[in-house]
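Board notes, transcribed. Complex of a protein with flavin-adenine dinucleotide.
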Amino acid sequence: MNEEAPYDYVIAGGGTAGWMAAAGLARFAPPGTRIALVESDAIGTVGVGEATIPQIHLWLNALGLDEREFLIKTKASFKLGIAFDGWLREGHSYMHAFGQVGRAHGLLPFQHYWLRAKAAGFAKPLAAYSLNEVAARNLRMAKGQPGALPYAYHFDAGLYAQHLRAFAEMRGVVRIEGTIGDVVCDGESGDIAALLLDGGRRVAGKFFMDCSGFRALLIEGALGAGFDDWSHYLPCDRAMAVACDSGGEFTPYTRSIARKAGWQWRIPLQHRIGNGMVFSSAHLSEDEAAATLLANLDGAPQGDPRPIRFTTGKRKEHWKNNCLALGLAAGFMEPLESTSIHLVQSAVSRFLSVLPGTTGTQATRNWFNSQADFEWQRIRDFLVLHYHANQREGEPFWDDVRHMALPDTLVAKLDLWRATGFIHREHEELFTEVGWFQVLAGQGVAAESYNPMADSLSEAELRLMLDQTEAAIANQTRPMQGHIQFLQNYASGPSPRVEVPA
Ligand SMILES: Cc1cc2nc3c(=O)[nH]c(=O)nc-3n(C[C@H](O)[C@H](O)[C@H](O)COP(=O)(O)OP(=O)(O)OC[C@H]3O[C@@H](n4cnc5c(N)ncnc54)[C@H](O)[C@@H]3O)c2cc1C
């Protein structure tokens, strides 16, 4: 057995979460901090996780990664929002697009003016008033000008992890290949002391990051943090994932397409399209899900659909003793709004904000865990809204989710919206009022009223405001380049070059 001085940080697992933690610590921990990451090639990573949200820029900028190189290395495309096809009913589509919708006037956000115009019968669908949606639907992309489009990326999850690995290793992170067989805890404090690897190797540490994926070897296996099971709110418990050759439109947006007992994602990358079905095993078999997925691809499948099983929910404590859980080890909510990678980023950032944060005090852990609870619960509520407010009547899965009991926090939000057209974003809730507005409107959740201050405009003034907003968006979109062309131009330069689908 090897005895080495304990590392300051030992990261268990080298998926997206592990290498994000390694990159963050390598960049921001004090000089001389010793960091090790243990991963097992034999076990591999979950291998999906390709869509992000605009907050990813905070992370990439903090690390100091060059965007052009990032686009090339991860074979990324741009993402302006998510289209929800068939979520309200078959044939209907709306978008949760990033950025503003309409414009505020006086003391009121846009939604009140839109609700008034809707009641009077002259509001267009929200799509007309969203620059991101108009650009996305027209397969356009632009960047860097005033009023430019807020965007995120679609990227290859494996290549993203490799990119971060190169960053972290260059800054001294030691990668240890091996399978963790056991976790040794200190009898008195209960803290983790070391990981025992195959072949008897021992990796001792002062602080541990559990990035071991759904296995949660440290936070659950060794420390028994407990799990809040949220399957009664989000009953999908399976995914089938398959990549296919490029084909169809190279959309600068993710597509989420409602199916019989769940939904299908479509994420175009430079070299392929990522696809998957998220579904409820109580309503659909894996074989049926695979058949639906294969019947709805835009190119030849690259292999057989791969099943992934999960239980929606989160650890009761994300930080317990001297261990912080990140990524799938911390919990999982389906990728309907592409939030998992963001949750890793936000947890790493929160942890870094209390460096040196070795074992941490109980007060620090309580603070961290209550922030995480709040963040996860509010995202959960937003996801539940998409399911609950469907009008796909007569389909057993959709009927069930329409009638399921809702979290109190979501009920309160819906009551406020219905009665007043007001949307309350509490503290640092991830999704903005505009995001909620788009999904509420898109899912057909009617507000019975709007704020009477919206009546301060005459009807002619309101019509003019809406028409001008729509016209300004159309004008801004017209000169934009196509998504492929933009990607090619933006990322062009010396070899390696960006790849674009044929
Ligand atoms: C179907 C699906 C779709 C998703 N889509 C999105 C999306 O679009 N956007 C998004 O943001 N997120 C998405 N996610 C989530 C995203 O994939 C994960 O949050 C992210 O990849 C982090 O995974 P991870 O690193 O925690 O786990 P993993 O990728 O599973 O990595 C676990 C690591 O632990 C190692 N390990 C495990 N056991 C041992 C052991 N005994 N010894 C040594 N090493 C071990 C493995 O080798 C691996 O390196 C999706 C997830 C799923 C399931």
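The CA atoms of residues 277 and 293 lie 6 Å apart. The radius of gyration is 23 Å.
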